[in-house]
């Protein structure tokens, strides 16, 4: 039985004041014991969030890391080892916004995945297709290629200590959400791709759905057999909404 996970990606949002308010709201939430909960604040606010959530069983992760695992001459970047030192336990890798807006290709994504794991972080690998790719019937091919870039370079066994997040690009921040059936089709294909190399591992890997997840739609999405929780964007900036999504994952 895979343990559900709900992760909140705060993206480029937050001031010290607004983050303090959000932390206060999270501390008041009744979170289900059977769900792993994580938040991914901006790098500037990681220490504030770690300190503010002491005593709350919520993991704190980063939204990105450098391709190099350790400190060095790479101005503006943050090494995975520095994130560990900042008390992060997870990191998002290959989010669609970085793939599209910052031109991060599969090679860079794979290097970041490897760097994260070598430093002791759990990578959350983000995969997903654009609207044009979906309309062209290329969804499964695009997602398979993004996943294969990692498995062919690093081996499938790296997913024993990683999470996958399927985020259709056309549903991120648009208010559009893949139907439970659409999401399940992709999640099942991802699991089958892993199973072709290691069936036991594939049955244990958690695959999250991301893309305008709301409390109202969460229960139906999370009820699908291969959807193990959610990577939540905008709704994670509202403690009550995020708490409701976490509880939906535990129901």
What percentage of the residues does DSSP assign to strands (E)?
Answer: 5-15%
Structural class: alpha/beta
Order of helices and strands: EHEHEHEHHEHHEHHEHEH
The appropriate CATH architecture is Alpha-Beta Barrel
CATH homologous superfamily label? Aldolase class I
Structural write-up:
- With 251 residues, the protein is α/β, with parallel strands linked by helices.
- It is built from eleven helices and eight strands.
- It has an eight-stranded parallel barrel with strand order 1-2-3-4-5-6-7-8, surrounded by six helices.
- The model has no long low-confidence stretch (mean pLDDT 96).
What are the defining features of this structure?
251 residues; TIM Barrel; 8 strands; 14% strand
Gist of the model:
Helices cover 43% and strands 14% of the residues. It is built from eleven helices and eight strands. Strands 1-2-3-4-5-6-7-8 form an eight-stranded parallel β-barrel, surrounded by six helices.
Set out the fold topology.
Layout: E1 5-9, H1 16-27, E2 36-40, H2 46-52, E3 59-62, H3 80-85, E4 90-93, H4 96-101, H5 106-119, E5 122-127, H6 131-135, H7 139-154, E6 163-166, H8 180-195, H9 199-204, E7 207-210, H10 215-222, E8 229-232, H11 239-250
């Amino acid at each position: 039985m895979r343990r559900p996970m709900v992760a909140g990606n705060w993206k480029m949002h937050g001031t010290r004041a607004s983050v303090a308010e959000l932390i206060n709201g999270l501390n008041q939430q009744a979170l289900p014991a059977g769900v792993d909960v994580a938040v991914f604040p901006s790098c500037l606010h990681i220490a504030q969030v770690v300190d503010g959530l002491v005593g709350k069983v919520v993991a704190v992760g980063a939204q990105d890391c450098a391709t190099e695992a350790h400190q060095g001459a790479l101005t503006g970047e943050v090494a995975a080892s520095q994130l560990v030192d900042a008390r992060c336990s997870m990191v998002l890798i290959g989010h669609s916004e970085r793939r599209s807006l910052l031109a991060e290709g599969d090679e860079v994504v794979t290097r970041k995945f490897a760097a994260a794991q070598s430093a002791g972080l759990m990578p959350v690998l983000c995969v997903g297709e654009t609207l044009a790719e979906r309309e062209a019937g290329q969804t499964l091919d695009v997602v398979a290629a993004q996943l294969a870039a990692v498995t062919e370079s690093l081996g499938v066994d790296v997913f024993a200590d990683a999470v996958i997040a399927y985020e259709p690009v056309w549903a991120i921040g648009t208010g559009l959400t893949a139907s439970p059936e659409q999401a399940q089709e992709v999640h099942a294909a991802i699991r089958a791709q892993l199973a072709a190399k290691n069936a036991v591992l594939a049955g244990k890997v958690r695959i999250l759905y991301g893309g305008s997840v709301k409390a109202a739609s969460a229960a139906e999405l999370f009820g699908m057999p291969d959807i193990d929780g959610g990577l939540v964007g905008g709704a994670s900036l509202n403690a009550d909404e995020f708490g409701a999504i976490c509880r939906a994952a535990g129901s």
